[in-house]
Please model this.
Amino acid sequence: MGKQNIVLDFLRQSRVLFLTCTLVPVSFGGALAYYETGRFDWLSFALCLLGVSAAHLGVNLSNDYFDFRSGADRPETGDRPYSGGGDALTRDRVDPHQVRRWFWSCFLVAAAIGLVLFLRMDRGRPLMLAIAVLGFIGGYFYTAPPLRLAYRGLGELDIFLFLGPAPALGTFVVLTGEITWRAFWLSLPIAGLITLLLWINQYTDFETDRAAGKKNLVVRLGKRRARWGYAMLNLFVFGWSLWMIQRGWAPLSFVVVLLALPLSIGSVALAIRHYDDEEKIRAAQADALMMHLSAGLLCSLGLLMGCAR
Model:
């Protein structure tokens, strides 16, 4: 029973259900590689998915560890399904040192898988290594000292770059051995999707983040003004997607991303009208999570449909 509890606490603390945030960019990188080359290496793609997933779990655990130590995560934050970290740590079911062992173990697994991928690659190794190292720095130092990027007002930019383009382009490099500016521009809607998820989740953590000195944009702007930033970020995701189609960077089939627009409209409407109502904001967070998954996978689908051109 004790071992079962440890496994359950690990799964809850690492927020394994949020691995959709890994599935989306890695799948997009794979779809983009196939769209550009017409070739696909299933084994390398599977290893990318496993490696980035292990790194993501490590980042979740390390961020919870350092937020707990700073006071940003408290027992009451464990009642929030979309934010506030896992509750195994804040409810004293696991020791902080155990969480630290967990996140370093996850990082080691990710590094081992990365080494296998590195050795399998014929070209593009320096690019893959650079993306992996930068991704680790961006993920770990999101809350870890001395950088503590989320506490310095750089958290949104960090997430925009390192949970959007980084895993997508990393997968693209592993599968193609190169990187292009078009691949970067195409990955920006994925970056916007994960950032808007972070943005709306910061609403329910507003008080604890402010008390802990976590100067994210919602804390800096205040809930009332920050809602317009959330609306503009949603507009960016769909507007940029349409602009890329118009420029010829994405196939016409990329327009399928608009199927996720109702979720965006619903989430923005809740945020604008009920920005100070935690129950309503939770509904907006649920919409944002579903939009990240659906819109992200629709972006991949749009590229794959374009392969039939």
